[in-house]
Amino acid sequence: MEPRDAAADILRAVEDSGNHYRDSIPMIASENILSPLVRKACNSDLHGRYAEGLPGKRYYQGCDDFDTIEEIGIKSAMRVFNCNFANIQSTSGTVSNIGALKSLAKPGDKITAVSTADGGHISHARMGAVGVRGLNLITYPWNEERMEPDIDASLSMIRENEPNLVLFGQSVFLFPTPLEELADAAHECGSKVMYDGAHVMGLIAGGMFQDPLREGADVLTGSSHKTFPGPQGGFLLSNSDDPSFHKRLNNSIFPGVCSSYHLHHVAGKAVALAEFEQFGSDYASDIVRNAKALGEALSSEGFDVLAEERGFTESHQVLTRHGAPDSGAGMMAADRLEKCGIITNMNMLPGDTKAMSGPSGLRLGVPELTRVGMGVQEMTEIARYFSRALKSEENHSSIKSDISEFKSEFQTVSYCFEPGPAYP
Predict the structure, then answer these.
(1) In order of start, what are the domains of the chain with their CATH numbers?
(2) Rg of the chain over CA atoms, in angstroms?
(3) pLDDT tens across 156-166, in order?
(4) Other CB atoms closer than 10 Å to residue 381's CB: what's the count?
């Protein structure tokens, strides 16, 4: 293939991907879309620039304007998350986690976290950031019915093992963590408490989930592109008023885990923070309302929706089971749904052991659907599409055509200063 042809094919695939999402119902819980102003910042000249260091303390010249951007973003983050310290340089939630682990623990230290089988993120596992840092991982006993750490058993485990670092937060995240009591036990043992809020940062900031920094977390990490609707990137936050601790946290990101930290994304993050200050509470509230409505509607259509006795969810996520553990039924359901125009991801549920071939469930998210103006009524309609796709023998092309027409009414980004095309 000629180089020019390769470039043309790549750009064609980029356009095709945008069209795919434009005409489908995107329900990946970790995804969102950019507002026009955030997109403008991300597409700027900052893409190719460097600003190693902190505002006013740079290794390069030419950073005065970026100093202004980062200073505004830091102050906005401190207001949005009601905290005393904010670093907005991290290039992802996982990079935030690696930085936090660097500042809070040494190789060989003990750490407790949710296992990946129970919904923990891969960065909390030996295969991810915890392993990269060389930490000794102990996972919490799990309450499958409540989809959270077993409080009494976890308290006993923390007191018995006296870990150096206690980590909470999940990738499958339906309900707030019972944090206060567990954090108190950790602090009694001299442990630091870290909360990975990657999936729920927008809900935390919008007052719709829990408030980790006031419930015992020493550090809050997270992503800037899930329920928080900014560009891909991360946050590292604390409510500590200790300048030496702030320095440790800043140093953990640069020079700890980042050299260039993608200035265009930092600028986009700062714009997203400004927009969130005005629109974030409404957005977070609407996300949770839609997720609850989706869980109820899918249950009414006869699907096995987890945590029904707790109201299905208190977050942006809904979990559905489609077969026996390790049956691969979630993988088959996700494939069928995409053919029909619904984009989801298979997910391990309690009892599953095979991450790639065995998941029996789906993890469904509503942040993007909410961002383009969908509400409770649309969640009911989406549940009907699920039923047509997975419970009937209807040809997938007819369902896909109906979904494309349905989605055509929801093509504008909202909860932002200048609403505009969601899929340019």
Answers:
(1) 25-34+279-421 (3.90.1150.10), 38-274 (3.40.640.10)
(2) 21
(3) 999 999 999 99
(4) 15
